[in-house]
């Protein structure tokens, strides 16, 4: 048991116009149910009655939690690794394109086992990476020879010390949402880039799967973003969105997991079809993709 955090106001915009939206199950670890609430002011959703930062650790303790264990168990995780080898390069190109720099100082928050941080280091960037999980930090040291720092280091960095901050599917895990945004502003110069990738609960695959949608991932995902909520949150902290990009492979990965949660075994054809539908919608509008990369600039 844990002492739950109950939100009486929206954790993003502080509005009291919040209400229950749905109940989702933790399929990865505990099999417990968690309520998800919706803010009618900024449209963010958030997991209600979550464990505190000191108590949430056990909900990450699973051999199947890929960002911490680097597991290749099962076909879905094998496909994840195959795709990751491609996406690491595309992420590096994205950083260079929007920063306008071939090298610089980058901070990667929530580095997992350090694959992206290692990629940027190999390409000549002065790379700092933060990761809370001790097993992931150990794996990063073992596999890539890099030392990951604890997340609380974010609060003690010198002002305007980084050119770029990246968070690949991390912001949804952060307890101190407002504190992180304040420090993003502090450690970046004017014009500095903040690149955030998060699931999008307004995507077509999220609509199709409803409460079974794998990217709700309660209680590890504390927040569930829409493009509108990201824009409002960014604006509150002195950032503006300069571009968005879809994460094409996430649609298929999330659909496969959702099918597995719903039917015990993964129905690959329906999963592929739902991923494809989500991506078709995103061709015309990146904000319709299962996961969205937001490229933000400090004003």
Radius of gyration: 18 Å
Report low-confidence residues grouped into runs of 5 or more. none
Quickly name the level 1 CATH class: Alpha Beta
Question: Span from first to last CA?
Answer: 43 Å
Strand arrangement within the widest β-sheet reads 5-4-6-7-10-9
Say what the CATH topology is. Answer: Rossmann fold
Strand content: 15-25%
Major sheet summary line:
6 strands, mixed
Number of helices: 9
List the domain count as a whole number: 1
Helix content: 25-40%
What is the average per-residue confidence, as pLDDT, rounded to a whole number?
92
> What's the order of the H and E elements?
EEEHHEHEHEHEHEHEHHE
Structural class: alpha/beta
Shape: globular
> In the CATH hierarchy, what is the superfamily?
Vaccinia Virus protein VP39
CATH architecture: 3-Layer(aba) Sandwich
Topology at a glance:
Blueprint: E1 18-25, E2 33-39, E3 45-47, H1 66-69, H2 75-99, E4 105-109, H3 115-122, E5 126-130, H4 134-144, E6 164-168, H5 177-187, E7 193-199, H6 204-209, E8 223-224, H7 227-236, E9 239-246, H8 248-263, H9 268-284, E10 291-298
Helix pairs in contact: 2-3, 2-8, 8-9
Characterize the structure shown.
- This protein has 299 residues and is α/β, with parallel strands linked by helices.
- The longest helix has 25 residues, at 75-99.
- The model has no long low-confidence stretch (mean pLDDT 92).
- A six-stranded mixed beta sheet has the order 5-4-6-7-10-9, sandwiched between helices.
- It has helices at 66-69, 75-99, 115-122, 134-144, 177-187, 204-209, 227-236, 248-263, 268-284; strands spanning 18-25, 33-39, 45-47, 105-109, 126-130, 164-168, 193-199, 223-224, 239-246, 291-298.
- The protein has a single domain, classed as Rossmann fold.
